[in-house]
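Retro notes, item 3 of 5
We never archived the inputs for the magnesium ion complex last cycle. Fixing that now. Sequence and ligand:
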Amino acid sequence: MHDEFEKIAWLKARFELGDPPDGSVLGIGDDAAVFDFGERPTVVTVDTHVEGIHFRRDWLSPSELGARAMIAAVSDVYAMAAQAVGSVVALTLPPKYPEADFRSLIDGLADAARATGAAVIGGNLSGGPVLSITTTAFGHSAERALTRRGARVGDRIYATGALGASALGFRLLEAGRLDLEHAKSFIDRWRRPPIRAEVAGRLSDFATAAIDVSDACLQDLGHICRASEVGATLDAQALPTLLGFAETCAAIGADPLELALTGGEDYEILFTAAEVTKADAVATQIGVITADPILRVLDADGCAIPLRSDGFRHFS
Ligand SMILES: [Mg+2]
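Structure as it came back at the time:
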């Protein structure tokens, strides 16, 4: 596979549409893909992973990198309560990028495309100074896409999965502390974010607003509050974390509350809901929407924890 055409022929086979995704009629091989999503709104988003900015090649395998790029992009489709139906991927390969790494990167992408529903129907290959992956993902929304704008006073706030896990994994990689008892589970969260397709498919039933946790819980909740013109109060004790979170944070001198609130790249879904029974079944209740347009985090005694204006915790 020395030239671009050989690579494309191989990619076409690797991303063959065995069972065409909803509405897709033509995948890789022509000038453009063709798809028809029918009557419901189409959701589209693009996300880029650049070597040296978003990842280091020695921190994850090529296959994990491919999967991560796809899952991170599709996470934005899920946050609109849409189901992923297709994707196009622009790949920039650095000089002398090993053939075996290329193949396993594509394997990771293809596996994640299958797992998320975002079949790869096209893309572009290019050379460049560093490795980068740009993924455009398409989704099929419910009758109306779920936005950040619908949160109402009294709605409960929910988070799927665990918060701060990915950020802690990243810190462990930076600190070289792979020896800690629970290190692997956090590093795995950073390397392989969760796929929240199932929750996404149910959100339109009960959620009033949603966003995925890519920047950080507090920051992303802030986006919902600004768009919905409301405020929020979070219960610090209620934030869901993985087993061993607090002690692993302590071992590297990190503040668990700060990481859970301000650590990024969890790719969990943060949403608000008025109807709690259905929401309780898929996520953890972490707070409530308020009329006061500010964010508050309460400690175990119900006292507000001081936050800096940028959402980060004050340290005394
Ligand atoms: Mg997002």
